[in-house]
Amino acid sequence: MQRILPNIEALRLFDVAQTRATEQAAMAGLSPHTLMRRAGLATAQLALAIAPHAARVWIAGGPGNNGGDGLEAALHLTQWGKQVDVSLIGDAAALPDDAKEALVRAQAAGVRIDVGRSMPLEAPDLAIDALLGIGASRASQGPIADAMRSLNELPCPVLAIDLPSGLNANTGQPLGDACVIARHTLALLTLKPGLFTGAGRDHAGTVWLDTLGIDTSANASCAWLAGRTNAEPPARHHAQHKGSFGDLAVVGGASGMTGAALLAARAALAAGAGRVFVRQLGEPPVSHDALSPELMFRADWPGADLHSLQRTTVVCGCGGGLAVRELLPRLLSAAPRLVLDADALNAIASDTVLQTLLQARAGRGLPSVLTPHPLEAARLANVSTAEVQADRLAAAQHLADRFQCTVLLKGSGTVVSSAGRLPSINPTGNASLASPGTGDVLAGWLGGLWAQWAGASADAEAPMHAHTSAVAAAYLHGAAAEGIHFGPLRASELIERLHAQRQSPPR
Prior knowledge:
By secondary structure, the protein is of the alpha/beta class. The protein has helices at residues 16-28, 34-50, 65-79, 97-108, 142-153, 200-204, 258-271, 306-310, 328-334, 342-349, 352-363, 374-381, 385-390, 392-403, 438-455, 466-479, 491-503, and strands spanning 2-3, 11-13, 56-61, 83-88, 112-115, 126-130, 158-161, 184-188, 206-210, 223-225, 247-252, 275-280, 296-297, 312-316, 337-340, 368-370, 406-409, 415-418, 424-425. The strands form two sheets. The protein has an eleven-stranded mixed β-sheet, with helices on both faces. Helix 7 (258-271) packs across helix 15.
């Protein structure tokens, strides 16, 4: 058993169909009831670890195998001296074979089992959600929903078995109004993507994994959970100079929004880009940045200098307003590495010609990264924000496939998708990042990472891939906010935290 976050290595995520296939294959090679007995023991062990002094434990058990896991856990906790009450919601006679056998074992061990009761007789010190797990596919009603609400009303910790009941394992979205909010979740066999994106983090709490002794390394998975190793910065060598780390230009900062362009440029500089230019789109013109005098302001960049454009990583759209639309055709046609954010995305969403230019980039060997928040993604896909949030992995992959690029869909559990490869879910960050300008910082930091990887190698195959740059940027951006628990993190402070983190990267 392992606690998942923080994770050093990237971890594989499995959807419901893949998890069920893994379960069926494992059961074929084991004695009957083995997996459920292992699951129950693992649950009881974790319950003892997270609440060692809990005298009374209430287990809300459902009508399927998740309920059977709860009954197995009840057996062990009773044998270890705990006072355990099980509320079995549903028809005991209709339980699956494994769960039916677990019920017989629990009864023989003296576990107190009430069929149909949705509340414990006495206030528990720990509650275990064994209602639905990954078996839920629609909103719950009646006694099951009542039991979920009862779990959420308890002041004691709640441990969910496999998945908080009522949460979609694939998308991380609640299936209805009733959905368990757990303090801890013990994922069994596999990690599910819904635990880490959408509303998953808020409902799952601290996530643990027990593979039940089954090796899943050769099994097909649906996504990756990014780890610290995804965020390792490029090594710097003694003989290198600023030209080794690439040029970057930030195009944005329309009237009244200069700060967005400055934040992106400062972040790119802090990330390690060799030289950073700012093409401001508004008035009054800015000639220097007192906080980052290293930045170079060019009112006419790139002008007629096509060669300069073709060797520069471009971050376009931060505070760009309507003015950014005029420059987009040229940037889409010639920028070798292009990060599109904010108003650049809005302009593309409303212009089919710009969409065609974006789609054509991949065929000409020009990679692009889009960094939308859910509303911007909805505009690009011509759907509602709710539809994007309903399945964030699918929404990001749809845009990546449509525009043949990398898409970084911001939000809780940021998703990075690229055409032709598995997506990645970012595990770092918290609500302190919900403040003005942090998205501009992310776009600039991503561009800064990408620029230096491109500038550090003469081999066309060696530069850091757009997807890898986006995964690294999302991870580091979120990690810089770790430890902030109250109130927003100012974007300018975020840059300093990112820079400090880069100075002493985790190893």
